[in-house]
Specification:
Glutaredoxin; 2 domains; 3-stranded antiparallel beta sheet; 13 helices
Length: 427
């Protein structure tokens, strides 16, 4: 082999290694932020289904949210470590063959505001997403041609172990995000944020942004559309046209079309907000837990309210079925989904700030009963889950397992090489 040819091969190997890391990192990051918040992926899939008119896919959206998140993350990791070199390249090409024309359609039509490729962590315009995918597609094609020329980090015989551990890690992250709350919150209503602006500003100082068919328009307080095809996006100050960074999002509570946000959401003391994203889909068996939370709130002197995007008839039906003693107010459904994931969900406020939020199904009825008997308060009810700490533990366990396998794998390789070398020297 000539020296020039050797240099060319070395450059090719280095370039393949760089592409593996870059492309794999993009896929792993995309899959991870989706897995953290599978509800967000589910809602984005609903937008796609609605825009395409494929409502028949609705029963499969939850599974799809999990599948896409897990697939992207695992694919990203096996690309980075060089596992299943040819197969992983074909998988990446298949993914890009779907995503590239899809994002071109989004860029041309604007049918969905953004593709949701990186969840709520990084929001790109549709055209930026399309050109990003073009670059990724070119990189994946190159890997398909040359990926096998570079060795892998782990031996072929243990690639399945690496894949299994990666699969287990991302599934656990997704389950926490779906059944409890996302362990990282990329939305406006983070823990510690004010739920509504600190200063009481009259509605006339705001414009309300609604979206329909990918087009956003601003309306004054007296111009807000009653057409349900318009989706609320945000409320902006007329002067700054930006949301105060010390506040959460733009939650507006209404009672018979009257804005009662400032009258309802307390700026001092404790408050429970029950979030009903879709009252038609709520299991009626949840009413028992909701009612004992209501009883405990009243016993503790904690104010409790409900917020929903449902109409008056649905609210009245819910009140009849659940015998709810707490008031329920209307709010934009999109804003409620940003406030807390799950249906229903529970948000605990103290002095107007978000302290914790959970899906109702993740709250233990036995724990609420114990709290009513004097064993704790509302903080104690939910202190069995700290998302950030739980994620740190999971990441540490995952990285430790991957490193341990790598050390054992490499040690075995070193041992085999040393034994072979010693045998050769004896001869």
């Amino acid at each position: 082999m000539t020296e020039d040819k050797q240099k060319k091969q070395n450059y090719t190997r280095r370039f393949v290694l760089v592409l593996r890391i870059l492309v794999g990192s993009v896929f792993a990051f995309s899959g991870f932020v989706k897995a953290v918040d599978p509800w967000g992926v589910f809602y984005k899939f609903e937008d796609y289904v609605s825009a395409l008119g494929w409502e028949w896919l609705s029963p499969f959206l939850t599974f799809g949210a999990f599948a896409v998140s897990v697939f992207e993350f695992v694919l990203g990791v096996i690309l980075i470590v060089g596992a299943y070199r040819r197969f992983s390249s074909w998988l990446a090409l298949a993914l890009m063959a779907v995503m590239t024309p899809l994002t071109l359609w989004l860029a041309l039509t604007g049918s969905v505001a953004d593709c949701g490729c990186f969840g709520d962590a990084v929001v790109l315009s549709n055209w930026a997403t399309f050109w990003k995918n073009i670059v990724l597609l070119a990189a994946v094609i190159y890997l398909l041609l040359f990926n096998v020329r570079v060795g892998n980090l782990y031996s072929p015989g243990i690639q399945w172990i690496v894949t299994t551990i990666t699969l287990a890690f991302v599934i656990v992250v997704a389950c926490y995000g779906y059944f409890v709350q996302p362990m990282i919150d990329f939305r406006p209503y983070k823990i510690g944020k004010e739920l509504i602006p600190i200063t009481d500003t009259v509605d006339e100082d705001f414009v309300f942004v609604y979206e329909k068919g990918g087009v956003r328009e601003e309306f004054g307080i007296d111009e807000i559309p009653n057409d349900s095809t318009w989706n609320f996006v945000e409320r902006r100050d007329k002067k700054t046209q930006n949301v105060d960074s010390d506040t959460g999002g733009n939650l507006v509570l209404r009672n018979n079309d009257e804005d009662v946000t400032w009258n309802v959401l307390k700026q001092e003391g404790e408050q429970i907000v029950l979030v009903f994203s879709d009252m038609e889909d709520i299991d009626i068996t949840y009413t028992y837990l909701i009612n004992i939370i209501d009883d405990f709130a009243r016993k503790s002197g904690v104010d409790i309210i409900g917020a929903t995007g449902a109409g008056t008839d649905e609210i009245e039906e819910w009140n009849d079925l659940s015998m709810a003693a707490y008031p329920i107010y209307n709010a934009d459904d999109t804003e409620l989904k940003m406030l807390a994931r799950g249906n229903p969900a529970v948000v605990y406020l103290r002095d107007g700030k978000v302290v914790w939020k959970r899906t109702l199904q993740s709250i233990s009825a036995a724990r609420v009963d114990a709290a009513m008997n004097g064993e704790g308060d509302f903080m104690w009810i939910a202190d069995d889950f700290d998302g950030e700490e739980r994620l740190k533990w999971l990441v540490t366990a995952y990285v430790t397992a991957m490193l341990l396998i790598l050390i054992l794998n490499r040690s075995y390789r070193v041992y085999k090489f040393s034994a072979r070398l010693m045998k050769k020297n004896r001869k």
